[in-house]
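Protein modeling request. Please complete all fields; requests missing the sequence field cannot be processed.
Requester role: graduate student
Desired output: 3D structure, token encoding
Chains: 1
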Amino acid sequence: MIDPTLPLIDLHRHLDCNVRLETILDLGQRHKLPLPAWDLEGLRPHVQVTEPQPGLLAFFTKFRWMTAVLVDYATCRRVAFENVEAAHREGLHYVELRFSPWFMAKPNALNPEGVVEAVVDGVEEGKRTFDVKVKLIGIVSRSYGTEVAWRALEALLTYSERLVALDLAGDEGNYPGELYVEHMRRAKDAGLQITIHAGEAAGPESVWQALRELGATRIGHGVRSAEDPALMDYLVEHEIGIESCMTSNVQTSLVPEYAGHPLRGFLERGLLATINTDCPVVSGIDLRYEYEVAAPAARLTAAHTRQAQRNALAVAFLSDEERAALEAA
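Delivered output (329 residues):
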């Protein structure tokens, strides 16, 4: 269901939730960490989702060992590099990797500025090594509150020229977007684009707020937008990109099964909806799985997935020149 004449693009992939099981084991052994298991199959259920979780916060518990092994900046650099390598191995032409410096720094009391530097360096090394185009999106996590969000944002802005956008992610249900208006304004003033996790744990009102008050031009997940016809019309009219992540949404029980995912309806309504992975290692997937397994289960035809590929190229955070070069490659 992948059209080989179009670039293969992932716009919603969390670098810090995409740490290889082999890397977790290696770092655990090197640094004598108390991992829950010392072989791949033993570790897998502690890191990967094997059955739908009762909600988004339960899904988050799978991230524990992803960040517990980030004991120093060298490991952050390694994980960033391996994310680029993974994208190359999957055959991606372009990927936007997003990361939260506070999420990565907190378990081992690292400096968030040092984490940002390490991630930037690791991605740059990956780009030099592998034939894949990569851009970075910084994340401010709602889950730590507004003061920590300011600290994370300032850490990201020390490398603003190496980032393309800022995302607001985390606990949408308990930390509404209204708390982060000034954070997003600061990021926009620094020249960053805005994409917001919304319409995932909260309803359409969260998407409206992200658009009207946070300045989002793309929405992460946005599943519950389908509940509001006026919002759907707005998303089409204003050409807002939707970063759909089908398997993740099933695993967090946001939708009961693939067949109930609204992506087909989004595409048929004319929304600029795209297909993405979210947290590949946690979900046990890659982008090809989303196109070849999840998409048919979600009732998408080859025409739907082709349109999703076109949409990804249209809403990617690329210059017109970069977009044309990627399309021509």
